[in-house]
Amino acid sequence: MTVTKLADVNLFDAETQRCPYDAYKTLRDEAPVYQCPATGMYVITRFDDVRQILTDTEHFTNETAYLTDATEPSPRALAVRNTFQEEGWVPAKTLNGRDDPDHKAVRSVFNDAFRPKKIEALEDEVRDLAYQLIDDFIDDGHCEWVKQFAIPLPLLIIGKQMGANPDDIWQIKEWTEAFFHRISLMQSEDEELISVRKEIEAQHYFQPIFERLREKPDDSLLSALVNTVIDEWGRPLNDNELHAEMMADTFVGGSETTTNAISAGVKLLIENPLAWEQLKSDPDRYLKVFIEEVLRLESPVQSLMRATAKDVELSGVTIPAGSLINIRFAAANRDERRFENPDVLDLDRPRAGGHMAFGSGKHHCLGAPLARRELHWSFKALVDRIDSMWFAEGKNDFSYHPHYLLRAMKTLHIEFKAK
Fold it and tell me: How far apart are CA 40 and CA 323, in angstroms?
């Protein structure tokens, strides 16, 4: 869908979500602070405005739930909560949904779990898995890249850190996809309740692991999350908080978004053969910039929600206190006011890491260092094992999962010539 008029913009439209970049440009140029007629939320698309929201804690808050506290919860929201309450654990607020001091307190647990030495300790494991996954299909001359590589690599890495059995990988993927779709803002009530029940299955899978780690801690990431006492609270995370963090900030944050970047990167390389040749010619020089360009161009987290704590003005528009804000990272990362030739994959781009694919400010993504290492070894293995590649004829529709917040390709069939 090519958008030429502001009236055509509908970010809930599945076809727009498939390729939203014309819509983003229209919004940046004509309505950088756009109040969505259907929802009343304000959609923010320019780089400087998005960065201001992420760093201005006086006027903006992450705790969007309070917007509905003044009124009775909807029947749908009640049905979701009651299902969790009756069959599992009601998820508490996630890290992304907290302001300081609670945000700082909970983040301290993750800071320890994701400290540089722990990421470095995973380096060999990530590298070996990347080559193993490619070697599993290299003799075939073809693969479905999403299922055979992009999903298992980050999911197996984070799954091990979360105490999961590697044999359960595809069951866990089903559960994480349920959460992924539940937060899409694209489901019917019946679909959402189906997703809720799948999440509850995951809760019952992980609850015994929590209890075991309380009795016998180990050096895993999950053990740190289960047992670290938050100084400000005088206690570790409880079960409701752990189940929320498991889905949002570890499995989806730690695998789903990386999967989508790995998928997007291969698609970009096939669409940009000169960049592919450039990358192969000197991966030590170009790989780091390529990874940053993938993150900038195809931001796996397209957007997140915030709210206004006070009246505030952005790009000449006054937004009242208590308004819901949708910050579009993906639109900001292609802002012509910030990036030269923003729609171009440029392996010589200066300051390539100056995007906001991982957010900014206090809520900058904790898992960014691990994600970058996973992306590094994914594309390094690709360069080392594959000489040329192309889209498998007649097998791709390049469709994306319907989602208002995230961007995820369903499948990517490729053929290739191995080195």
Answer: 8
Which amino acid is located at 296 in the chain?
R
Q: What are the beta bridge partners of residue 304?
A: 327
Q: How confident is the model over 247-292, as pLDDT tens digits?
A: 898 888 889 999 999 999 999 999 999 999 999 999 999 999 999 9
Beta strands 317-319 and 33-35 are unpaired
Side chain identity, residue 329: F
pLDDT, average across residues 180-207: 97
pLDDT tens per residue, range 121-131:
899 999 999 99
* Residue 86 in tokens: 């009756």
| Residues 289 and 189: beta-carbon distance below 8 Å | no
Element (H, E) at 325: strand 324-328
Q: What are phi and psi of 340, to 5 degrees?
A: -75, 135
State if pTM tops 0.85. Answer: yes
Are 412 and 144 in contact, with CB atoms under 8 Å apart? yes
SS (H, E, C) 139-205: HHCEEEHHHHHHCHHHHHHHHHHCCCCHHHHHHHHHHHHHHHHHCCCCCCHHHHHHHHHHHHHHHHH
- The residues spanned by each domain of the chain are 6-418
Contact of 155 with 255, CB cutoff 8 Å:
yes
Dihedral angle of Cα 64, 183, 301, 224, to the nearest 10 degrees: 80
Q: May I ask the CATH architecture of the domain 6-418?
A: Orthogonal Bundle (1.10)
**pLDDT the model gives residue 79:** 95
| Distance between CA atoms of residues 222 and 395, nearest Å | 39
Instruction: Pull the structure tokens for residue 243.
Output: 């189940």
Q: Which residues contact 358 (CB under 8 A, 6 or more apart)?
A: 295, 364, 365, 368, 371
Q: ∠354-128-159 over CA atoms, to 5°?
A: 75
